[in-house]
Amino acid sequence: MNVNSMPYRTIWLKENDDAIVQIIDQRNLPHEFNIEDVADAATMSIAIEDMHVRGAGLIGAAAGFGMYLACLEASQTIDFQKSLKSSYEQLKSTRPTAVNLVWALDRQMNAIEQAESIEAKIRISLETAKAIADEDVAFCQRIGLHGLEIIREISKAKPGQPINILTHCNAGWLAFVDHGSATAPIYAAHDSGIPVHVYVDETRPRNQGARLTAWELAQHGVPHTIIADNVGGHLMQHAMVDLVITGTDRTAVSGDVANKIGTYLKALAAQDNDVPFYVALPSSTFDWEIRDGVAEIPIEQRGDEEVKYAQGLCDNKLTRVLLTPPESPASNFAFDVTPARLVTGLITERGTCAANEIAIRQLFPEK
Ligand code: MRU
Known about the structure:
Layout (H helix, E strand, L loop, with lengths): L1 E2 L2 E2 L3 E3 L7 E5 L8 E5 L2 H9 L6 H19 L5 H13 L7 H15 L3 H39 L6 E5 L16 H8 L4 E6 L6 H13 L3 E4 L4 H6 L5 E4 L3 E3 L4 E4 L2 H10 L4 E4 L5 E2 L5 H4 L8 H4 E6 L2 E6 L12 E4 L6 E4 L2 E3 L3 H7 L4
Helix pairs in contact: 1-2, 1-3, 2-3, 2-4, 2-5, 4-5, 5-6
C-alpha cells in the first residue's frame, strides 16, 4: 500500500544489505513514520513483543525473517543447532495468541532441517522468510476479491448509497505484509467504485483502530469515521451498519474466532440486530488442533500501563499521559473469543465459508 504515494510493505530486506531486515515501527503512528533496522533475532523478538510490528500476519512474517537472522547468527557460533533453537524459543515466547507466530517458526524449522550445510540452511531460511511474506500478500489480495463479492451483493440493495462497514482493531495492511485481511475487501470495493464508509472502533487500550486503521484508510482515501469502542451497538440498532468485518489472530477448526478484545461484544450486537458479521483470515491463522476456542485459545495478558496511560500529540510532541488514579490496578486482556454461532462467514484466500468445521474442511481438504 502507499504511504504519501510511495508503495510500502510492512517488512522487507534492506537494499544492498542482506543481513538487515527493515520494518515499519508502528508504535508512534500516525504521528511519526519510522523505519527500524533489525539485525538479530533477539531484536526481532523485542519488536514483536513490544509491538513495533503487530497483527497476526505480520507477526508470522516477522518470525520468518527472525529465523533467517537467527541462522546468520548461529553460523557464527560453535553449535549452530543450539543457537538456532534458543532463538526459536525466544521468538515463540513473544506473543501467545496469534497462531501465525508458531506456524511461521515451525515452517522455518522444518525447512532449515532439510538442508545439510550451514550455507544451505541460511539460504533456505531466507527463501522461506520471503515465501511466507509473499504468500501473505497474495492471500490477502485474494481475501479482498472474495470479500468484494459480499460487499457488491449488499450494495445491490442500496444502489449508489455508501455501504457502512464497521471494523475493530487493525486488520489492515499494517497487520500483514500488505493489503490486510478485514480491510482488503474494503479497499477492493473502494477501488472498484462501490461507495464505502468505514466505522473504525478506536480499540482501547492501544488504539489500533484510531491510530492505525484510520491512518491507513486516510492514506488510501477511503471515507471513515472513528468511533469510541462502545458506539457500535447503538449504530447497529439504528441501521447505520450494513456489515461488520474483523480479522482474527487464531481461528479454531470449529470456527470460533479469537480477535482483539471487544470483538465478541460487537458480534453479540450484530446478531441482535441482524447485521452480517464476517471474519477475514488467511489459512495461516487457522489452528487445526483446537476445537473449543473459548476453552483452548491462549489469551495474552499485557501490562496494566497500556490501560492506564494513553499516548498522543501535545504541542506537536508525542506525549504519554496517565488517565487513572496512579494506585488503581488495571487488567489488560488483549483478546477475546467470538463463538462460531455469532459469525456469519469466514473470508479466506480460497473463498468464503460458514464458520463450522465441515465447511472449513471443505475449503481446506488437505488439512
Ligand atoms: O494486538 P495486535 O494489534 O497484534 O492484535 C491484532 C488484532 O487483533 C487485529 O484485530 C486483527 O484482527 C488480527 S491480526 C490480522
